[in-house]
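Propose amino acids for all 157 sites.
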């Protein structure tokens, strides 16, 4: 699992924007920036839609006021689903990034197998990243939602 002090692994994530599909190389997108990256097991799932993403939507201005350049949400879903979920959640200030094949999630060592429910998905977590170096790793225990929520991350900034 990724640890504090490590560089973010090289990876590409997709984003569907008003200008079409974009593939972001994270080592370029996040270089020289302070980033809050949080991950959810799946778009449109209960805790993710009722609490996790909405918390970051509500607190986005306060998080950015702490010097954060990018707030990004990642899930093992496709970019079309992530874009639709972001729109449904009014997440204009959040980059909705798709890890369709779970390669980024696996590179972080934060994958979980949900078997027939959804297959390989991401664990719920939040990272604070400063110029590609991970400064905070908050991974949730199963069936828990405290360490990665927006309020906790805001307090850590």
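Proposal:
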């Amino acid at each position: 699992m990724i640890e504090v002090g490590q560089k973010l692994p090289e990876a590409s994530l997709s984003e569907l924007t008003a200008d079409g599909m974009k593939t972001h190389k994270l080592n370029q997108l996040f270089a020289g920036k302070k980033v809050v990256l949080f991950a959810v097991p799946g778009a449109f799932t209960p805790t993710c839609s009722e609490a996790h993403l909405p918390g970051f939507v509500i607190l986005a201005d306060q998080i950015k006021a702490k010097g954060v350049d990018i707030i990004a949400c990642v899930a093992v879903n496709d970019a079309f689903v992530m874009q639709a979920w972001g729109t449904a959640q009014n997440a204009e200030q959040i980059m909705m990034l798709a890890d369709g094949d779970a390669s980024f999630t696996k590179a972080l060592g934060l994958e979980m197998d949900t078997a027939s429910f959804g297959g390989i998905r991401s664990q719920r977590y939040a990272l604070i990243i400063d110029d590609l170096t991970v400064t905070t790793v908050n991974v949730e225990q199963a069936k828990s939602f405290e360490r990665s929520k927006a309020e906790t991350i805001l307090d850590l900034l």
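The radius of gyration is 14 Å. The chain has a mean pLDDT of 95.
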